[in-house]
Amino acid sequence: MTNTDKLSQTIKLKDGRKLGYIDLGNKDAKPLFHFHGFPSSRLEATLLSEKDIDKLNVRLIGIDRPGMGLSDFKKNRTLLDWPDDVVELADALGIDKFTVEGISGGGPYAVACAYKIPERLHSCGIISGLAPRDLEIEKSIRLFAVIRIFPLLFKLMMWFQARGTLDFEKAEKNMKKALKKMPEADRVILNDPTTFSLFIKASAESFRQDSKGAYHEGKIYAKSWGFNLEDISPNLRVYIWHGEADVNVPVAMGRGMCEKIPKCICKFYPNEGHYSTIFNYFEDITKTLTS
Asked: At what angle do helices 138-149 and 251-260 cross, to 10 degrees?
């Protein structure tokens, strides 16, 4: 059962859940599955499609994770459940092998695919991605500790964020305040009116249902991923791109994962931030992943 609206497509998974996705670009081009940040949604792919995906000859597919956007919530889901959803979608779309990329909070989901379904992948890209708590990076330890030790506080934070997205003008105002604390490279990207508007919409879509999906996702980040980075197949091409000026996800996370993942190829950009890396290097990233 499939809903075919261009920006709001869905499939029904084997367990009865609905999975939301967006399918952009030439259907005969190389498939690239994009895993959105946190909190965000499949609509994040519309931001990247502004980069002329037709010229890049890529089919860009963004997917809502459970409980966000159009995807039904899944109780007690784990990080390693995600590759199964991705495979079901790929099969439904008639796609055998494909590439995955994850930005920020989507990074762990790309890594999970690299570990669990390497035989289905051409390559895997991690852009400004969160690392597992096991790496014991100071800033991430503090973030994950808040979620683990004060889950009700984190739940309340997600509730307030969800409420804030209901009022588009208020969401814009809050985002403009947040922009002032971002690195210059990120401010340049998000000060573009079109990009700014699409960014707000993609984030708001994450809370289309409620804050439950985002809350559960935060708990997943704070847990062990359920596998070791060292056990990822050395035969799969895994890439990391990370800005050294990133204040959302410290570059130490990218460097730490680079050391652990077998034969990982990494690029670190001195003056790039959390968002600017994928926007300024999207063409290079896409060509690298789909070559």
From this structure: 100
Distance CA 104, CA 20 (A): 20
CA atoms within 13 A on the CB side of 127: 26
CB 143 within 8 A of CB 248: no
Asked if the bond preceding 270 is cis, omega within 30° of 0, the reply is no
Q: What is the CA radius of gyration of the chain?
A: 17
The distance of Cα 171 from the centroid of its chain, to the nearest Å, equals 21
Written as tens digits, the pLDDT of the chain (291 aa) is 445 577 899 999 999 999 999 999 889 999 999 999 999 999 999 998 866 787 888 999 999 999 999 999 999 999 999 999 999 999 999 999 999 999 999 999 999 999 999 999 999 999 999 999 887 665 555 667 778 788 888 888 888 888 877 777 778 888 888 888 899 999 999 999 999 999 999 999 999 999 999 999 999 999 999 999 999 999 999 999 999 999 999 999 999 999 999 999 999 999 999 999 999 999 999 999 998
Domains in the chain (CATH in brackets) are 2-290 (3.40.50.1820)
- Extract the tokens encoding 243: 């800005």
DSSP 119: G
Residue 160 in tokens: 């307030």
Q: Which of 83, 109, 103 is nearest to 254 (CA)?
A: 103
**Contact (CB, 8 A) for 272 and 280:** yes
CB contact at 8 A, 279 and 189:
yes
H helices of 93-211, in order, are: 107-116, 138-149, 151-166, 168-179, 184-190, 193-205
